[in-house]
Amino acid sequence: xxxxxxxxxxxxxxxxxxxxxxxxxxxxxxxxxxxxxxxxxxxxxxxxxxxxxxxxxxxxxxxxxxxxxxxxxxxxxxxxxxxxxxxxxxxxxxxxxxxxxxxxxxxxxxxxxxxxxxxxxxxxxxxxxxxxxxxxxxxxxxxxxxxxxxxxxxxxxxxxxxxxxxxxxxxxxxxxxxxxxxxxxxxxxxxxxxxxxxxxxxxxxxxxxxxxxxxxxxxxxxxxxxxxxxxxxxxxxxxxxxxxxxxxxxxxxxxxxxxxxxxxxxxxxxxxxxxxxxxxxxxxxxxxxxxxxxxxxxxxxxxxxxxxxxxxxxxxxxxxxxxxxxxxxxxxxxxxxxxxxxxxxxxxxxxxxxxxxxxxxxxxxxxxxxxxxxxxxxxxxxxxxxxxxxxxxxxxxxxxxxxxxxxxxxxxxxxxxxxxxxxxxxxxxxxxxxxxxxxxxxxxxxxxxxxxxxxxxxxxxxxxxxxxxxxxxxxxxxxxxxxxxxxxxxxxxxxxxxxxxxxxxxxxxxxxxxxxxxxxxxxxxxxxxxxxxxxxxxxxxxxxxxxx
Length: 548
What we know:
alpha+beta; CATH 1.10.630.10; five-stranded mixed beta sheet; 12 strands
């Protein structure tokens, strides 16, 4: 009897081991049979690390640019354990990948790391679940809904303006030093709190609210951009390893617990407001008022006159809160910071933009309508140039779920000298889409590609029209079924911030421009060479325009 029990236990243990062992085998063996090995590219420095040490030293975007110049728009780099990774800088090929989201999913490592940070929200789920969540969320990000949020965007933009004006008036100098990234992160956090959830974090207020500090500290942990170590690779590949705690997983779990606690309170509060006001038996969509995203989610959850396809469970609703918090304020604060940096480098552009904004103030006041904002041609060109040159997200990766041939606009020559017009991939092969470098490639934008020149958008090059982005002939918001759902929200928020700040202040460099560099940490943030220990920051001098 004992021997039978032992045998059964041993068999059960073997079965439990087979799945992770099989996954490990395919992870290590499949790359040797990938057709991507026929694609040219840099040689790996080692089997273990591939070309990753180069990309970490130079940053992925800089390394990609160098390799694009050497190998053209289609080449491979090498990940860990001899795994080739296709870099696809071809507009038709990119369009194929992002349009077929059922056939190209996020990679296991990226999905695991992202789900640790934001949970199973719209950013991380795949397939039909993503389609379902997006269907429910789409109404919150329509044109009319976003325009209705413009007063919130201006309210917080004006609050930041007043804080900076106070600092300038208290400073006995013609110019005042501020860390624009820090202030913009606080501003956009306040905006997403009010516009997303009808909740005031008051991040721009006095730093004495323990809940606000706890919350912002948690967000900082989740968005610190810490590079995954070998244990994270193993946890993504073999779920059993996820039960082994590490310092990183403990920090993230603690931060997520804070967000989930606050998120749960926000949902419960909104439900109580709805149910407390309803005097009839059934809850209809009209019973859930409010322009913020959370109101629409609660409406989908409670309203009995909506079909099941337009509902989210409580768990799914909670999962959207960290997703929208992280994606909804980090990307915009990054883009606006880089935009102000570009203005500090070119006073001609800054003066031209300010003149247009001040004419608008004369006609419409300090808080113009969305129509008035969107009718400003130079502001529109300026924002497009910011998103071309300073995309908040540097790159995105997809993994083929089935064998495929990715069509391409351009011919390429494989390692055997054969000219091809498409790239064969096997299920499990990785494809990297170089978002930032599609906006920094001379083949598309011309030899002045590195110059910040909004006027280029008066007549954008023909090659730019082929880029399959959801907005503005760039890939900053991606495209296809997984395009950024909040791109209209982000664009109008950016315009309100630029309108308010640039019309009031002159921005000047506080450090030499060549010392400012980009580092991807969830989003691309500015660092100052020689001051890396301070983390992401960007000091600038500001002065009131009237005192120039």
